[in-house]
Amino acid sequence: MATAPSVSSLISELHSRCHSLSAIKQLHAHILVLASHHTPFPYNHFLSKLLSVSSSTTTAAAASDYALLLLTSHPAPTAFSFNVALRFFASSRPRTSLQLFLRMLRSALRPDTYTLPFLLLAAARCPAPSFAVSAHALLHKLGLQHHDHTVHSLITMYSNLGDPCAARRVFDGILHRDVVSWNATIKAYERAGMAADVARMFRAMVAEGAVVPNAVTVAVVLAACRDAGDLVLGRWLEGWVKSEGIEVGSLVGSALIGMYEKCGEMGEARRVFDSIADKDNVAWNAMITGQNGMSNEAISLFYSMRQAGARPDKITLVGVLSACAAVGALEIGTELDSYASHRGLYSNVYVGTALVDMYSKCGNLNKAVEVFGKLPCKNEASWNALICGLAFNGRGQEAIRQFELMRNEEGLRPDDITFIGVLSACVHAGLLEDGRRWFNSLTPEFQIIPKVEHYSCMVDLLARAGHLEEAWDFIEKIPGKADAVMLGALLAACRKSKNVEVSGRVIDRIMQLEPSNSWNYVVSSKIYASSDRLDDSARMRGLMRERGVNKVPGCSWVEVSGRVLEFYAGDEPQHGADDMYQLLDMLVDETRLEGYVPDLDLV
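Below the sequence we write its predicted structure tokens.
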């Protein structure tokens, strides 16, 4: 049997070599085999080592369980043991941290300056407001109300709990304020959406002059400008940064990019981005995710990021996958799928959900279902992506089956987006009574207030089933005004059934909402023409010309070698793709030979 010194030497030699959970477990097993009953097991060393391997998302859960097992088996845990455990669980499993703290108190161990910050973080993350107030009282009882790190954590706790007034009271009680306390309090106002208070506090900080704002201060204030759409203050702040000689690095630059993008100043955002000397993932992600619907530009930035040698992370993938979904860039999306699989990012629920959404919107439903099945962790957004994807692609029955499976999942609750998918599935599958039942259950059973999208689905469902009068009555009872989408759905159904009476009411309403939409004029004209009301038909065409409304040309996206090309209806060849046009002509000829006759009714 090995002696105590030899065991100690073994631990000293091997402990530093453990860089994974499996290696730590192997060392644990070796020590149990080699050590005598009289040699104490180094519980605290192992708890500390587990912290270093818990940052990996693939091992975090297993490391957490192992740490809890170690602490539970510790015959005489110390304050250090509990402090390490509290730190371990404060963010990922805050309720466990609170339970461990209570166990620490029952063990007659005294909390210290290392205990309180992680206890306060756990109280905020739970969230547990009553526990937070008790922790604040304990802080005073222990005489830690003037300990810098603890007080900063107290401000952050109230910030995370959405109580900026309590955070400000703590700040006002600090005798010697530093930049961290200023930043934490400004952040509390920013989190609460109180942009005016953020600006006032920043100006007070500058005017007081005792503490100089740093890059974090500027980034928080710019975030408030972004959320409030305050371009004036944002521009002034950029000028102030330059006048104070603060470097526009990744942190400040990314905040400026986000502020300009939110305010619609894409050129200014690009100017700031190009001025950042060393672009890290934060800067690239800010530029990619803030393109405001300019999906091709987001994809182009992604390729530039790769060429610059930056390694895309989970935020990059979510942003680019959303862009791929918007323009149907399946080839690029599939490439990102392989990258996510290779980098172990499938375990991230946001990446997995973005992949399901991308495949659904690109029409590859089988792949969407396959990816969904591989996800180790699924939240409401993951289920919504699959249910909506199936529904919008015409697989209504399958979408409803997935919805029923979701309802059986513990800890998940359908939300308003789920029911947009469910009602859309009922529309595509023609399930009128099921649609009525689910719509009527929204508020009493699921506590969801119907939104315009839910009403729109019901109007579409009723209209497709031929219940045009009921659909119109439904529109009349909607709180607020009906939007052009649901009116357009009803108008299309009126055209199909040649119902002039209801269509006349819809036309009057939709023309008020969208007087510049050419589709409304064309469909209205066709409805009147099919009912032999040629004067009304000509009037709609004349009104369209009089108002200068032009028919929007059709547009298609085609992905070619990783590039998404836009093609607009017209005679002139575009993108130099003569071979594409030749192939298109061949396809048209083939379809005509098969007897296909194009429907030119709305041309």
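The chain has a mean pLDDT of 86.
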